[in-house]
Amino acid sequence: LPRFPAEVKCVHDGNTLAVMVRCAEPESPLARVRRHDGPIDHDDSFQVYLSISGSSYVKLAINPAGYLLDAAGESGGPYLSRPRVEWNSAVQGIARQEPNAWIARLDLPLDSMVKALGEVERPVEWRVLMLRSRPARSGELRETSVLPVIQTETPLCPARYQRLVLVDRQPAELSTPSASKPKGELASLESRVLSHEQRTQMDLPGMLERYIRGRVRKILKAEKHDWEQVRTRADWERFRDPRLKALAASLGSFPPRVSLETRVTKEFQGEGYRRQDLVYRSRLGLWVTANLYLPVSPPARMPGIVIVHSHHRPRTQAELQDMGILWARAGCAVLIMDQMGAGERLQNYPWNREAYHSRYVMGMQLYLAGESLIKWMVWDIMRGVDLLLERPEVDPQKIILLGAVAGGGDPAAVTAALDSRITAVAPFNFGECMPEYPRFLPEKNQWPLELADPGWGEWESTRCLRSSIAGQFLPWMICASVAPRRFIYSFEMGWEVEKLPAWARYQKVYGFYNATDHLDEAHGFGPFPGPGECTNIGPAQRRSLYPKLNRWFNISIPSQEPQDRRPESELAALSPTVASSLSMKEVHELVLEVALPNLQAARTKLERMSPLQRREWLRTKWKEKLGDIEPNLNPEAILRWKKQLSRTEVEAISLQVEPGIMVPLLLVRPRTQPGPLPIVIAVSEGGKERFLVHQSREIESLLQGGVAVCLADVRGTGETSPDAGRGPDSEEVTLAATELMLGNTLLGARLKDLRTVIAYLERRADLNARRVGIWGDSHAPVNPPRRLLDELPGWQVGPEIQQQTEPLGGLLAVLGGLYEDNLRALAVRHGLASYSSILEDRFAYVPADIIVPGILEVGDLADVAASLPPCALLLEGAVDGRNRLLAEPALRSEFEPLSRAYKNLPGTLLIRTGEDSPNLVQWLLAHL
User: Fold this and answer.
1) Is 864's pLDDT higher than 90?
2) pTM of this prediction?
3) Cystine design at 348: which of 76, 105, 287, 358 (Cβ 3.0–4.6 Å)?
């Protein structure tokens, strides 16, 4: 339930629908927008979305000052929907403020709505979504509440709106729905340890980001110190080499080169150029679709250009065609390939525009197998260079690599750093030049100018390389390592390059080689966002690129841009016949082929060990993957408040795990129970509040059984959540990715928190350190066995909700059991059955903050669980990587190692598909 609820009432007179809302608000509402059709939904706002049929919708919003926004749009198809604010309706609205609330009314003329939705007559039924948005305040997260529940990042999803029927009845004749509230003393207990004033003073939602930024800053200062010692070429190479080695180690070894088996599936003869539509083999089972543009009459030796497209569009996009045509006419061989997940290499969506989040899923899957998306993309590019060099007319001294804006520059720069065959590289928007955070604008710069910009975590793993901050292979260093080969510092927008600290570093490095002529810059125009943006590398960006290519490689500057692009469908390299003959595999299948032999090898090792050896081996190997998991054995504990209930007493405690990280917890004990009590620690992604709302009855049953309960919010969850989102763009995913850049994992850091909580509780005289249990829960609904439609996270608009699993609680319970010897019982509800199940489909409904790179090289969750005896273990309702319950046969197969490990301990292992007798509480009481 929302902390700041909204109550809605609707009435109509046959012509107008009036929607009235009362929004609870203990503070002053935010109403900064003072004009109609402004960004009202960034204020406190109430929003109504109406639809009738199909994908059309209208959006009506009002802020507490009474200003309105009306817009219309369509959802679905290859483009993300963006409402058109130029539509003006006859909607009227009014708003006013009262103590602890603001009230608004919207009057919607129905005929105007019908016309905007493309209908010819009023419907019997409408579809509606109502949304209350409360922006973040100091100490409070942004809160969005909706009716109905749509479980997606966007409200522009009319297929998920709820049926609205306008009836001619008196209000008294209608049943009024009311939100069901949990019952019992604990359900109404305040879940927060810190007061509003304390949260505001500490900026609790910003705790995790501040902590991570502090660690990053320390590394950047060390890097600055080392850089300042670089005064000669030898100094530079001593600075460069260990960082390049760390980059190579982060990626790991590339696969053996297999024959390309290039197949030209068709050719096109254009005016002054020709084009081959082809496929080539990057690795066993992985084929790359590409277009090769060639001169009509190739010279004896010509430059070879490889262009890496952006994540916006595949290789057939207009700007890419332009570059292929114009440079082929200028006497070059130009190879433009589809990156993984794009074009004819689509993995998920059936269209080629903005299928961004296929990279999110593929990145998670590759990480689990000890691989990475950036590595596989780099290898595709290297094989593209192989393809060019197989042609005798391509000059190996003139291999040029261009990386497009938004996801093309990153793999291009890394390829050039690791492949000395690249003669020149122009990676757009990489190397300290992100359009969103230009360093020459003080208001947008993220770091002090004397420090290098390390980048920051995000859902697209190619932009935030694992261990890049810890290993100090920062974006500028990756680019500078190309020296003395040619490098074009390239930016999509207009800039003041001389104000950029990286530019001074590049000049210094190239000066060591007396090769400053091998360094230059390219740019577009205007600010971001703005008209200068491009999809890949547009004419404005190429205008400053042409003179460099002319000076270095004698590539002629075109007198005009090409005007003869071909329909995108003509550039296809695959036909059904060709595709079937290649036996093309999906990426997740190839990742499984990498992961399963390593997993089996680890299990073979484990089978040869004694139980004690297995446990120690798993502890060592999983710690290497998880990062810093060591607890603070003597944490500072501050009692924030204490409360007596009828049968229980509650202590609200903040636990200092390390400087900058605090874990708030509630310790609930039965008042009448004498002696040191057994204790159950409850953990989940939703934190204390979710347990009190959803499991208050179960907690009360534990207390009645004489067991104390500790509800703990590990970092970034519950009370310390950085935001309320759980999708790819959420702060938790961003910060988890930054932890990977630091060589750590957020899951490992949260395990450190849990172990610190255990250490604190075991020291308390009122608790029994030998009778400790962990209860890990999910609180996320599960998906059905079969779906009508699978969708990628981030933009889910279909009729069926895809629920994301939240397995953090179960993972912490099992991992806590691995590293803590004194635990008596572990209970996991709706936990993840295995990491390997995430690789079994091209869709996965898991959050990135539970991903541990390379974990399947050292076992899976069943192997860890099999090392836990004699600790009692309950696994209830385990789910796979698509958040579906495992059926009985799959359960037996997945957890077969546990059955063998527990065979001599009858009654201590219980694995089941759902709740049964004994229930979870009864089971915990029996084993504590």
Assistant:
1) yes
2) 0.95
3) 358
